[in-house]
Amino acid sequence: MPLTLPSTTDHEDIREAVRALCADFPAEYWRTLDETAAYPEAFVDALTKAGWLAALIPQDYGGSGLGVTEASIILEEINRAGGNSGACHGQMYNMSTLLRAGSPEQKQRILPRIATGEIRMQSMAVTEPTTGSDTTKLKTTAVKQGDRYVVNGQKVWTSRLQHSDLMILLARTTPLDQVKKKSHGLSVFLVDVAEAMKAGMTVRPIRNMVNHETNEVFFDALEIPAENLIGQEGEGFRYILEGLNAERTLIAAECIGDGHWFVDKAVAYGRDRVVFGRPIGQNQGIQFPIAQAHIHVEAASLMRFKAAALHDAGQPCGAEANMAKLLAANASWEAANACLQTHGGFGFAAEYDVERKFRETRLYQVAPISSNLILAYVGEHVLGLPRSY
Ligand SMILES: Cc1cc2nc3c(=O)[nH]c(=O)nc-3n(C[C@H](O)[C@H](O)[C@H](O)COP(=O)(O)OP(=O)(O)OC[C@H]3O[C@@H](n4cnc5c(N)ncnc54)[C@H](O)[C@@H]3O)c2cc1C
């Protein structure tokens, strides 16, 4: 099927509406949150009330039934406006696991309540401290006992858990030495956070480089009702993987938003700041790195739209989604460096917001997937080279 890039006029109304909402949450808002390590509650509420966080929920369940293309534009605009989608993006892409593998009863029970903002499903617990990127080796177990699963183990970097009513949990239901493939025997569960906190789940916040609410989570004989299993037992890794292409594409869009923010900020400062009797942006040593970053942001954006269009057309998009994530994360980091350098010493002053966005965009080289793992994916699955890990 020939791919057409989304028409910009179709999406200009989305961009304008998200920009208007973001204008109520200016740089000072995000700066204060960063200084006080607080969660952007008012922003997330406003985004939910306006329906943007329900973009990917089908209309039958009270959402707007938009595609990843539109969702990516929403997140891009938030980051482009100086905000940080990391506080709420999980709600968009966690949805895909439930949408693809959840039962009609689960979807009917949960999705309309997420769409109205009554509950949040912002959190997904996959990563573990001892196994890291080697996900299929994770050690958290869920053992079926009658009409319940009993969960024991530990997760790390479980984000937004303290601002979420539901968490998606990946745990091993069949021991590794009893499965044919290591990706088998893992299952996905819906965890009611408030219930779990009273019954065997402990949460310990991790202080980190950015204002990101993320945690260590411990499970000590946590009981989950069997009806909270999503899809088939043992197929959970596949469900998570299927959702990752949307996640990669949406994260790419956030990077692109950041990239534009850095370029715009650097251009404005480069025009205004006069040293040695001329604007610093007149010097090629300042101008060219900004131009180079801009070109890379624009190129990454095209790959993002290609990945999103394939995804929305129901076509395979693993290669494009991964490539978009890598290109966009590199481009935003390049733009961040150009912007910081352009600002000289003032780039380090919190009131310019450059150092905050610089820290925020650095994360995308590591999470939700590190750049090396994307290169390994492209080497193996796109180019057919031997598996390197
Ligand atoms: C702020 C933040 C929020 C996060 N939120 C979540 C969340 O909500 N839910 C969740 O489940 N996880 C979350 N994560 C975890 C994130 O997905 C992982 O940090 C990431 O996948 C990398 O895993 P790791 O940190 O264990 O690194 P490791 O797997 O230990 O890797 C460390 C480094 O070694 C490299 N490396 C490892 N193996 C190879 C190899 N074979 N070849 C080449 N290089 C290799 C990696 O690329 C990386 O650079 C979050 C992380 C952070 C920092």
UniProtKB/TrEMBL annotation:
The keyword Chaperone does not apply. Signal peptide: none annotated. Residues 123-220 form the Acyl-CoA oxidase/dehydrogenase middle domain. It comes from the Bacteria. It holds the Pfam family Acyl-CoA_dh_N. GO terms for molecular function: oxidoreductase activity. Its cofactor is FAD. Keywords: FAD, Flavoprotein, Oxidoreductase. Gene3D superfamilies: Acyl-CoA dehydrogenase/oxidase, N-terminal domain, Butyryl-CoA Dehydrogenase, subunit A, domain 2, Butyryl-CoA Dehydrogenase, subunit A, domain 3. Transmembrane segments: none annotated. It is an enzyme of class 1 (oxidoreductase). Residues 234-367 form the Acyl-CoA dehydrogenase/oxidase C-terminal domain. Belongs to the acyl-CoA dehydrogenase family. This is Acyl-CoA dehydrogenase family protein. It comes from Rhodoplanes azumiensis. The lineage of its organism: Bacteria, Pseudomonadati, Pseudomonadota, Alphaproteobacteria, Hyphomicrobiales.
